[in-house]
Amino acid sequence: MPKMRKKSDLPTKICVVCKLPFTWRRKWGRDWAHVSHCSDRCRKAGKAGAPRAGGA
Fold first, then answer.
1. Three-class SS of residue 26?
2. pLDDT one-digit tens code per residue, 14-29
3. Neighbours of 52 (CB within 10 A)
4. Which of the chain's termini has less CB crowding within 10 Å, N or C?
5. pLDDT at 34 > cutoff 80
6. Counting beta carbons within 10 angstroms of the beta carbon of residue 38, is it exposed (0 to 12), middle (13 to 18) or buried (19 or more)?
């Protein structure tokens, strides 16, 4: 059985839309270098050009 890692040990990035930190997910494993949005909601908001309320 593989060893479990603490969430704090995983790499993090800052979302380009909402400017909040998000943590690596297994489904992003092959594509982590190209991930720039924390969710589909931020990705869609970024394409529309309208920043979300949480942005700086």
1. helix
2. 999 999 999 999 998 8
3. 14
4. N
5. yes
6. buried
